[in-house]
Amino acid sequence: MERRTFLAGLGATTAATTLGLGRARAQDPVKVGFIYVGPIGDFGWSYQHDQGRLAVEEEYGDKVQTSYLESVPEGPDAERALRQMAQSGHSLIFTTSFGYMNPTLKVAKQFPQVKFEHATGYKRDANVATYGSRFYEGRAVIGTIAGRMTKTNTIGYIASFPIPEVVRGINSAFLAARAVNPDVKIKIVWVNTWIDPGKEADAANALIEQGCDVIMQHTDSPAPLTIAEEKGIYAFGQAADMKEYAPTARLSSIIDDWAPYYIERVGMVMDGTWEATDTWKGIASGMVKIGDYNNVPEDVAAQADAIKDGIVAGTHHPFTGPIKKQDGSDWLAAGETADDGTLLGMNFYVEGVDGELPS
Amino acid sequence: MDLSALNPVAIAVSLIVAATPLVFAAIGELVVEKSGVLNLGVEGMMIVGAIAGFAGANVTGSTTFGVLCALLAGAALSGVFAFMTQVLMSNQVATGLALTLFGLGLAAMLGQPYSGIPAPDFPRVWLPVLSDLPVVGRLLFSHDWLVYVSLLLAGTTAWVLTRTRAGLVLRAVGENHDAAHAIGYKVVLIRTGAILFGGACAGVGGAYLSLVASPLWVEGMTAGRGWIALAIVVFASWKPWRAVLGAYIFGGVTIAQLNLQALGVAIESQYLSMTPYLVTIVVLVIISADKRRARMNAPACLGRPFFAAG
User: Fold this and answer.
1) Rounded to an integer, what is the distance from CA B136 to the centroid of its chain?
2) What is the ipTM of this complex?
3) Which candidate in B85, B219, B265 is best for mutational testing of the A interface (most A CBs within 10 A)?
């Protein structure tokens, strides 16, 4: 009995504190919920989403009430967290990681009056919209820099999970690097986690030991940057600028800016124009930003800027043929650009990438 | 695949870095369990140690002071556990789990001002001549000082537990608290001491993560290492040197799989990522297969509350 009452009390307090409930307001504000895969203190992916949430609060003031749940594991736990949010009067819920896709759709079916927005996924429903950023555009820019800056001609890539989003980033970075440096190779390590600083650091060390002198990452913590700084090689900020962690080693960064999108979508719920759309925008829209260059020689910076400007102007597509798949089969003919459908479901490496893609 | 690209010395050095936090936490928990107390709050104490160590080092610029802060913070948190379980007689399992949840939350709160700043450099041992030796120098004589402390800690613990009167008393309390009480040993006091020691060790293990392994503060950065340390204690059948071995095997498999991936070995990375955990489970199964030996190793009063009768 002692244990039961204790656990019940514990459950109630965690739910109340993490949801930040209990700030009732007079004129029924719109309740907007966010589910994060990491802690908002990761200073990366989840942190940037939370910056978007804060921007929504600032924009709408008393007319909106936001709450969030952080460090929600992908899978069944996410379903419980989502249901809890849907039941507590939220009219719009953002689920901000790929692994929330199926839980989001499942819970959305049970709560047709609640609107859902799932980041980086591809399944929609009457009340489920999807949104994402064309991070691969940013990868093309920093891939260009990496290709020029590597002296060992070996770039290390710390990858999280073999989902299309991550595979696309690897391919885009590699193609951009090879375009400016035909001898470049890429070594990929999958850590099977979005955030574990210790493991990310171990992965960075393993890559450095095997000759990589520029490291890219598709994980959320700044640990690889601190290792790069310590070992005197180069790396890039991921999701957030991360300059403070590696003032010398960080060459540039890919920054996610979700604020304009979140403000727009909350506004649509308020005036009743919300629809289950699919949004996938990149550098041109400002959803993907490139951080300041640091320690990048002028001619390299100019080359990276040319790629960036070309993407903004629509004259350059990071996936422009001729490109073959890793197995040597043809993918894109000369001059042909990849269609969004293939990019969104990308499950193959392009030619020149070593190693096998985990399925 | 070219295996010659693997540098065994470099792998060994990374292995030691990956294993050392586990050595600290596991040795601490081992002593706690030897005294008959099961503290499942290792993860919570580690993460509080991680932020305390990081904060202490950043405020003063001294990593040594940071480690001291971590030690005290881990001990302080375990003090809460000791008070709850030894004085208020709360359930050890529930209190330990609560300690983990509390520690994670507390560390997140304390850590807010420390996100986004790097840690001061952690000094490495450098011995004239010895550290410059090829292979051996890098392998044995140029780690950070906490690595040597962790091994010294394991050795001292093994010695105290088996060769001294204090160790005998501690084990007596863990094996049969009623008998120990009857012949006049202060069970609650001895257990409280063991719990505080365990908390201090876990705290230092956490500080190793935030000051040496990946010198930064990120919420939740222990990422389950406290639970691994708990598994290692069982894996080691409550023997300090086996706990060190367990931590090094776990660290070694982790590092080896990352290196093999970088080499481009065609094994699916999910399986490689699983291997450290699989190895732990397999060893646990082997160890517990012989029921009588397993029972002999586990402290008989582990997890049982002690009421002083009469």
Assistant:
1) 26
2) 0.81
3) B219
